[in-house]
Amino acid sequence: MDERYPEIFDALALASLPLQRVLDLTKDVVLEDNNISDKYRDELKNSIKVILFHSLELHEYLATKGSNFDFRSDGKDRYLKLREEFKEAFPSTLDKAYNLYELILNESDRRSLESRKNKDTKD
Fold first, then answer.
1. 54-67: pLDDT as tens digits
2. Residue-wise pLDDT tens digits, 64-117
3. What one-character-per-residue DSSP string does the chain give?
4. Contact in structure between 22 and 82 (CB atoms under 8 Å)
5. Which residues contact 69 (CB under 8 A, 6 or more apart)?
6. In the chain, what are the domain boundaries?
7. Which residues, other chains included, contact 6 with Cβ-Cβ below 8 Å and sequence gap of 6+?
């Protein structure tokens, strides 16, 4: 195992909260800004999605290296601890009561399961 995996995991955990803050705030501002064109609004929304999904890809990559690097599995306690430490060091009114990454992955899992159930029903 590469000794840098734990460092990457910790860095992603620490970066996840400020990134979530930026994405939540930017999403809200972009949707409410009536001074930009629909085309530019769509480009900005896509930029937010790209940042989010690329960082999720890094999480998924690490999860393949061991369950202790999976923030929804054995790495969850460490991941949440690091996020909480960041939150205490840098409090913000922007913080939501959820982990955006986990929310997205759970929704993806749910949709995938639904899709498989629908496919099985058709067969």
1. 888 888 899 999 99
2. 999 999 988 899 999 999 999 999 999 988 787 777 778 778 877 887 788 777
3. --TTHHHHHHHHHHHHHHHHHHHHHHHHHHHH-TTS-HHHHHHHHHHHHHHHHHHHHHHHHHHTT-GGG-TTTTTHHHHHHHHHHHHHHS--TT--SS-HHHHHHHHHHHHHHHHHHHHHHH-
4. no
5. 5, 6, 9, 62, 63, 75
6. 5-122
7. 69
